[in-house]
Amino acid sequence: MSMIPKEIYEIHASICQCLANPKRLEIINTLREDELSATEIAGKIGISNANASQHLAIMRNKGILRSRREGVSIYYSLANPKVITACDIMREVLFEYLNEKQSLTRKVKI
Known about the structure:
Blueprint: H1 6-19, H2 22-30, E1 36-37, H3 38-45, H4 49-61, E2 65-70, E3 73-78, H5 82-108
Helix pairs in contact: 3-4
């Protein structure tokens, strides 16, 4: 296996830290199929426009999202569709973990 430069681990951790927020994961899932305006995203996930704008700016600055302006609206989309694949894989790992934990809990119950 080749050596990975330490800077890559730093960048990787920074992106993971950005994604370690439930609302940001919800935003990614909301953008799974199509681009949406900040207002549409806020409405779909039930947060204020200001809060959505903060999350969107953080994800745009990390390169997770890209944006384009149309009139007074800013539309957001995923910069790379592999982000969805990565999130889906992590969710599968989570479900497997929860199923295993639930199975163990059933065995331990008295």
